[in-house]
User: Fold this.
Amino acid sequence: MSASTELADNTTSDAMNERDAEPLVRVRNLKKHFPVTSGIFNRVTGHVKAVDGVTFDIYPNETVGLVGESGCGKSTTGETMLRLQEPTSGQVYFKDDQIFGLSKQQMREIRRDMQFIFQDPQSSLNPRMTVQKIIGEAIEFHEIAHGEERRRMVEDLLERVGLQPEYATRYPHEFSGGQRQRIGVARALALNPDFIVCDEPVSALDVSVQAQVINLLKDLQEEFNLSYLFIAHDLSVVEHISDRVAVMYLGHIAELAPTEELFEDPKHPYTQSLLSAIPDPDPKTRDKERVVLEGDVPSPIDPPSGCPFHTRCPARYEPCDSVEPKRTETEDGRIVRCHLYDPEYAPSDPSVVEDLPNPPTIEDIEAGEEADTTSDVSLADD
Assistant:
């Protein structure tokens, strides 16, 4: 049985209703550059621009999927948002707090509301600690409960994620991969957070187990009113769990759109190439047009000038080499970072986009023109 038949339906009505509220998390021009050193004196000779100016919002009870090739900066984005990595620049607001300006004590308090589910359940759980201690450590550290009350809370959390309460006395090596990931989910829920970064939580699991964990995350979201940043490679998984999807390339967000619109009508050439690579078992659609990218992903140490995707783009033209594209809103709630949708640089030669299965329309460009007048205001730092 395929995962798609077991995964929960992507019901987005609750999250869409929350879109009228203030964002729970606001990311503004986030950058994380890692220094490159050389020589016996470890002189800094360059920087790896892992995240290079990322901006987006996450609303209450919403799941935003973050996808892209390996090394594009997805995991670093999630880690930097929670200050597991210190940022180079930019701002992240959680509710009304700019978390990069908080002290250690203030961060300790706010971490109760912001949690992380790690990619590898094997390495993220301490092999020398029982499940009781792994999940209960944060409960005791934040002085929520002690002793017998803490034990009952841990057992209740295990039941909520589909594990037996008696498993609390076991060690991580005694569980399967799917069970270990459920323990990781229980640990993230221990402090009753509002926001969880899920860093490829199902990539190391079998397909059937993936479906179980995805359904679990959806059920817990409804029960606890959670918001997720869901980082993944598997586009089919992202399609089922996400309300909106951000496509990332070389440290930048290329496109951000509601899930259904992005999968049915991708705008950015990179998004079109990703979606065209999804295997389709329907023989009637096997002749669908593919967007095959040539060359390798450029090094984040020395990224290309202009558009970071122009070295591989099938619709490359004059401004792409030298002019960095702006974030352009093509439709309500939809962002694309491409010159094709910018009225200032939109190509007049139709042959530029003839290799794209979904070229931009006049309506797309006109919508971008309307949104461009207010984009600076909507992205301004608070």
